[in-house]
Queue: 2 jobs
Job 1
Amino acid sequence: MRLLRYLILFALVAFGVWPYYHLYRLDVALGSSDPRALEQLVDIPAIRRNYKERLEDNLDFRSRPSLAADNALTWLQQNLQHRGDAALGQAITLEWVRDTLQQATTRATDRRSPYLMAAIDFAFFESYDRFLVRLGELGKDATHIRMTLQDKTWQVTNIIR
């Protein structure tokens, strides 16, 4: 019975440390000169989906009657919805993720060769399969990284600046 308790405790501790290990791997990948080092740690389609959702929420003119009557704004919203996928596909790439995370790390640490681990101000679970990381102090141009457990690995699925 005691062995079972220790095994359960070990499993809980291992699960709690797991996303931090992936943050370390992300830090090493950002320091690498090979941009493909990020490939296994980043879910580009999920990041694109999250950015598209935020764009659509910000451009939802139907909830604002004074703006909904404006034909130009309606036309703009429709065009952005149709062409938004192509634009996001071109803008959000592995290189963009790498540059964004390196810039956020530099802002948070004020160092020339920044380390992701040094920039982390907060990192903890949102739920059993979601992990939130804040680079920099809250309210001072912080960048949030949301990691999601996918296929037995933690991947970056959202970057919020």
Note: The CA atoms of residues 121 and 136 lie 6 Å apart.
Job 2
Amino acid sequence: MSAQTDRTDALMSVLIPEVRKLAENAPAFGELILRANVHDYDIGRISLGIETSRRIGNRSNRGGSR
């Protein structure tokens, strides 16, 4: 194996379980966020986030006035 393949495999072995966590809790509408800090080809910190969203009606449909 090349050094690049070894580094890729090492990074993926850490990232794949985190992606699975996000996928298991995915909202119907929204965003899945994964941010990984890498130093010298090693992941030092992973931040996960799930944001849900929904579409709201136009101001006139919500009863708002201006």
Note: The two ends are 66 Å apart (CA to CA).
